[in-house]
Design a protein that fits this description.
There is one protein chain. The protein is mainly alpha-helical and 166 residues long. It folds into 2 domains: 50 residues; 74 residues. Helices cover 64% and strands 4% of the residues. The longest helix has 38 residues. It is flat, with a radius of gyration of 35 Å.
């Protein structure tokens, strides 16, 4: 036994504590080493069994590998819609400029890889509905809010009423 800082002339109870701690530490190191060896062995076995992973889905080139009736839309020309879908989307939004902004935002998200979509038309419709819902919530919040002067006046009246000055 080699405990380094605990000398033979120290209290036997302290030596026992140090000895127990030292033995426990050796046991834990041994367990950790066995666990790492077992984990490395499992990893080596699973790497042999695993099939090769498919390559990530590539973005479609501008006007290739798409249905012939679809056209490329958006800033990066990677949003594929038929002319009828584009017209329906513009009618759904109600404004051609707003519709093109939403199409451009989808185009940017598709280009940088943060978004993938199998059906661009469905994605655009859901985004437009979400945006309408959020705009409606903002409008109701703004109409229900009172101005700062009204709020401040109400606060001051409450203070005066509390002290019986009104």
């Amino acid at each position: 036994m080699s405990i380094g800082c605990v000398l033979d002339d120290t209290d036997p109870r302290i030596r026992a504590i140090y000895t127990e701690a030292f033995d426990r530490m050796e046991y834990e190191y041994k367990r950790k080493k066995e666990w790492e060896e077992r984990k490395n062995k499992e990893n080596a076995e699973t790497e042999k069994i695993d099939e090769p992973k498919p390559l990530p889905r590539q973005a479609r080139p501008n006007n290739e590998t798409k249905a012939p009736e679809q056209l490329a839309w958006g800033k990066f020309e990677n949003v594929f819609l038929t002319q009828k879908q584009h017209d329906d989307f513009c009618v759904h939004v109600g404004n051609v400029n707003e519709a093109n902004k939403i199409i451009d935002s989808l185009s940017c998200k598709l280009a940088d890889g943060t978004k993938t979509s199998n059906n661009h038309f469905a994605t655009l419709i859901s985004w437009a509905d979400w945006q309408k819902k959020n705009d409606a919530e903002k409008n109701t919040q703004n109409t229900n809010n009172e101005t700062f002067a009204e709020r401040e006046g109400r606060r001051q009246r409450k203070i005066l009423e509390r002290f019986g000055m009104v």
